[in-house]
Specification:
The chain is of the alpha/beta class and about 150 residues long. The chain contains five helices and eight strands; from the N terminus they run αβαββαβαβββαβ.
């Protein structure tokens, strides 16, 4: 299912933006003229129960030990590129929208994103982004909120 269809069916408003090709979340922030702290980037981890979508600010780095603790798991590992291609068949690799329920994944949101009014994110292609109100994003994702980034 395409992101826009998913959001429309969920009753979520958004702005769709086109921009020059970007391959990193920081480049997306630059292209969208926003702080990297407003860009929500997904990092997929594999836990004992399956894949989990961790959503963190663009400039942050995921702390796997914190993610494991939040999930009550002994350890978690980053998903491999081949696994990512299987998990997100309709998306360009690296342009996955950070909306776990769209892909039947649990979502964990870094607590640093909690203070943002809006989030900007890739929309499945390296040339498309959406801007969404953070409370609306939370309503559709129902994320667990935890400090999952390195300090």
């Amino acid at each position: 299912m395409k992101l826009e269809t998913f959001l429309q069916e969920s009753g979520i408003g958004y702005e769709r933006h086109s921009h020059p090709t970007t391959y990193t979340s920081q480049a997306l922030a630059h292209a969208e003229h926003v702080s990297g702290h407003m860009v929500a980037k997904p990092v997929i981890v594999k836990s004992g129960t399956g894949f989990v979508m961790c959503v963190i600010p663009a400039p942050a780095h995921l702390d796997l030990k914190r993610v494991a603790a939040a999930l009550n798991e002994g350890e978690v590992a980053l998903a491999r590129e081949a696994e990512m291609a299987d998990l997100f068949p309709e998306c360009e690799l690296g342009a996955e929208p950070p909306i776990g329920p769209m892909f039947n994944m649990t979502t964990i949101m870094d607590s640093r994103l909690k203070s943002d009014e809006f989030l900007v994110m890739q929309a499945g292609k390296h040339t498309e982004a959406i801007k969404i109100r953070r409370p609306d994003w939370e309503r559709v994702c129902r994320p667990q909120v935890a400090p999952i980034t390195a300090d």
